[in-house]
Amino acid sequence: MRINAMAGAAAFVLCVGPAQAQALKFQPGEGAQFTWSSYDSFAAAHDLTGQVLTITGPWIGPDKVLVESVLAYFEAATGAQVNYSGSDSFEQDIVIATEAGSAPDIAVFPQPGLAADMARRGFLVPLDDETADWVRANYAAGESWVDLGTYADADGTEKLFGFFYKVDLKSLVWYVPDAFDEAGYEIPETMEELKALTERMVADGGTPWCIGLGSGAATGWPATDWVEDMILRTQPPEVYDQWVTNAIPFDDPRVVAAIEEYGWFARNDDFVAGGVQNVATTDFRESPAGLFTFPPECYMHRQASFISTFFPEGTELGLDADFFYFPAYAGKDLGTPVLGAGTLWAITADSEAARVFMEFLKTPIAHEVWMAQSGFLTPFAGANPKAYGTEALSAQGEILTSATTFRFDGSDLMPSEIGADAFWKGMVAYSSGEDAAAVARGIQDRWDAIR
Amino acid sequence: MSPLIQGLMTILIGIGGCVGYFWLSNLLLDRVIFPARGPDQGRNITRANAVRPWLFLFPALAALGLYLVYPVVGSFWRSLFNRDGDTFIGLGNYVALAGDDGFRTAVFNNLLWVLVVPAAATFFGLVAAQLTDRLRWGNLAKSMIFMPMAISFVGASLIWKFVYANEADIGLINAIRAALGADNPVDVIQIPFWNNFFLMVILIWIQTGFAMVILSAALRGIPEETVEAAIIDGANPFQIFFKIKVPQIVGTILVVWTTITILVLKVFDIVYTMTGGNFGTQILPSYMMSYMFRDDGRATAVAFVIMILVLPVMAWNIRQSRREMR
Amino acid sequence: MAGIAGRGTRLGWVINLSVLALVILWLIPTVGLLVSSFRDRDQISETGWWKAPFAVEQTYRARVDAGGAVAEGTGFVITGNVFEAAGVGSGQVTAFGVTGRDPAAFAPGDMAELRGGGMLTVAGDGSFRATSPEEFGRRGPSIYFQAATPPKFTLDNYRRVLGADAMDRAFINTLTVTIPATIIPILIAAFAAYALAWMEFPGRGLLIAAIVGLLVVPLQLALVPLLSLHYKVGIGQGFLGIWMAHTGFGLPLAVYLLRNYMAGLPRDIIESAKVDGATDFQVFTKIVLPLSFPALASFAIFQFLWVWNDLLVAKVFLPSTDEAKVMTVKIADDLLGSRGGDWGILAAAAFTSIAVPLLVFFTLQRYLVRGLLAGSVK
């Protein structure tokens, strides 16, 4: 009975195969911005018919639809079946799953810190050296991406485990052009201007900012981005690097000052929609909704590039909503720093399908299909920049390339107990009124405890 | 294939296995090992009857041993090791916990929960039991108050989000405040210290029905003569309730109280879904979750602390049940 | 007897009213959830559920297409209907405005000055007329207006929760976890309870005491060692593991409840059956088991509710994939995250998850109460 059922399932998959090919978002061969040749040669080289690949990642809701639209091309090209499942508490779940021996084939880590932790415990399968060379040669600033994906394994040997695919830009401020036009506000070019604009909006009777830290079990992380952006805007990048590795303590006065810079925006009842108490509980996906109400509950929202997927249905980027670079201080000679992040794909259970999938991520088409939709940036030089589906994405690509400093989201680089727990909880505590130095002290204590 | 079919198969295999085990093992005992015939008939029956209880008990004892006794020992053992589980560090995890502010907050909050929730639920349950006892629609009223028992803690948390929400258009509390003329909505989940009580209300809401049902049965078991004698003596209803009735059901009240206390020490869902442990509402079970699968040594140490907190209740329970047996 | 309620009608009234108040207080939160789950998502965020039967005033923006401008006299004119332009059905305009900051500055029929120097008027039925001395820019003027929409009740929330949010799968998973995890412990516990209630053997009292003690062991203690045990023996995370875990965790209560009940059965019946030559196995299956039906039913309900509503055990013993998520995990980890502010979806999801337990509860309440009493009050 069991065997019959399996055979039935296999037959079902076979029947579904060609049907899925038709469900592809962009028809292969159509559109000059897509490198279809890479798709064709990949499809010709690999045949995984009947194999099943499971992928677990952090994307749920609209993001899940996007990633599945890319996975469909892998299915169509190889005949394999890909099961993607997303979870909001991915960070906890992937550890539970691997410890229990029910790991997926591939895990998509939003946190290199967590990936490093799992590599050290022997839960990840290293990628080959060609992959490292490929990243070095084909990614802009390739060496830094290799570094970010290289960790010590169980024996302490450094190996490449993670492949970066899908980069997010964090230093963006979102606004509604109509609202700015009607009130006569100009896009601020410097942090000084941004602060002045914030105060002017209050003087005009408006509320400048929407800030929401809520994110289920991960509540607090949006504030960590604020703080990281603020460190990059008040201190040289070396300080940032030392802070991330805890070479300088978390409660260093320079870090505490950056936390308080964030507090200048978030701990002022006049500056944030709903008052300070709303900051910690508003869900980060719900938070930008305030931009789009009449009258606007707020005028600006600092969040990474992916947030546009959570704007109300029918929002047209560029017309209904737009963004500007979260500016740097003119008075400090720190250039134009940019904070970003990316998702890291790693093999958690070795199989032919998993290896072939990693090859798929090296094809331009794997990048272009998502570029042509939303919320996707790539440092891959081989992907056609014309494939970006919107002006907004191209503009973000431009911010990415014109940055004088690029730093990876620090909380993702810290040990997961800090970057994915203590820092989050600390920022919630700070946002709801606790003292910055005390919060930083508490995080440092936790860091000391895990040594 | 589908988990549902798998589930049905499990039911069949599980039930078949259980029935088969009991039936076959009994058959084996009576017919093969100690057959109730032949020269040793009498001795064999006695022997079979000495073994049989253990046949009946074996599956339950095995499951209990594996799923409850072993973990107590296993957890304690694990809590003596470091985060990776490869280095013995003695009581290091407990020492680290004692020095952690978050842990102290969690213990303090947990004590609050243990003091407040059972007391409040028992009190409301007692009042509800007494008030509904003689009403014509008492049973309907009881059903309504009992109903939250059926709702999951997660579901209950969502239900209460519609009461506590920080917008006057969603949350009932803020709507009432707005109607009374308050300017700004207040987020009750963020009021330091008191937010703990707002979370406790959810559990009290759930558990009051339980207390009510049991206490109402106990109230009905009170001999009527005692009450009638008091009425004749001219006692007023409040005196009857507090001086005559309550003293007679103290035993039941204590049972209800301890049962809820045990539950309180297990509940993690409410804090997890309402605040995630932020805003100073951490309790031990949710505090444990932030270490679990990161630092299992620390997590098991927290679990063991919960165990220690429960010990007095356990001792009391055992003493009580032994007294009843006699 | 002449109870308290019977003492004079005034006290009777007070009691009736206070019970009524108590019941309402206890019901209100659940009613709020139920009502909200049927409301339109835009209306939920505009007015509270207690105002659900009334019309809701919402603000919209209409972007007027400058392409429809006609030269008229010395200037240009655009006419049309704001409801069409904003893409909302129809209704009655109660106010309009020309800036987002003040979207209700003018009453229908008023003349409002546009920023470019033109004039705009919107009538109550939504038809508007914008004039400008010069040509309209690439983007025509934006018109903001308030309109009252009648109360809307819909099943959309349920449709979306069950369809797009994979709650249907979670529902089936919950069933899959719950049913075996309810039935298996009953069988195992019934035999053990019989042995503890009616069989004489050394150590019986000690065993009963031990089971009473195990009633209290916190679940948290079991999670880490058991998961690694499951991992070692190759069960890993999955339905088999969670069935076994729930069986183990439910047993102390099952044995305790059933033993208390069985011990209370009349001694004569059992002894006379034994005198007639029935074996313990026959006594158990033919006499004790049927007589214990109320206690079995009540434990079944208990265990059903416990397993159905459990979050912690499911979080640890089931994999975190969508294919294996039960409803509580789905709500706590998925929906509260991805639908954080979407109250209608949350309400519908919560109600989907509590509907079955409520049904079980209301139909089988009698047994639940009886079992509770057998367990707690001797």
Summarize this entry quickly:
The complex is a heterotrimer of chains A (451), B (326) and C (378). Chain B is an all-alpha fold.
Describe the structure.
The complex is a heterotrimer of chains A (451), B (326) and C (378). In chain A, helix 6 runs antiparallel to helix 7 and helix 10 crosses helix 18 (416-431). By secondary structure, chain A is an alpha/beta fold. Mean pLDDT of chain A is 85; it is low at 1-22. In chain A, strand 1, helix 3 (62-78) and strand 2 form a beta-alpha-beta unit. Helix content of chain A is 47%, strand content 12%. Chain A has two domains: 32-168 and 340-402, Periplasmic binding protein-like II (D-Maltodextrin-Binding Protein, domain 2, 3-Layer(aba) Sandwich), CATH 3.40.190; 172-339 and 409-449, Periplasmic binding protein-like II (D-Maltodextrin-Binding Protein, domain 2, 3-Layer(aba) Sandwich), CATH 3.40.190.10. Chain B is an all-alpha fold and 326 residues long. Chain B has two domains: 3-64; 100-325, MetI-like (MetI-like fold). The radius of gyration of chain B is 26 Å and the shape is globular. The mean pLDDT of chain B is 85. In chain C, strands 2-3-7-6-5 form a five-stranded antiparallel beta sheet. A three-stranded antiparallel beta sheet of chain C has the order 1-8-4. In chain C, a hairpin with a 4-residue loop joins strand 6 and strand 7 (127-132). The two termini of chain C are 24 Å apart. Residues 1-6 of chain C have low confidence and may be disordered. Chains B and C meet through helix 1, helix 2, helix 4, helix 5 and helix 6 of B and helix 1, helix 2, helix 5, helix 6 and helix 7 of C. Chain C: The chain crosses the membrane at residues 12-35, 177-199, 206-227, 239-258, 287-308, 343-364.
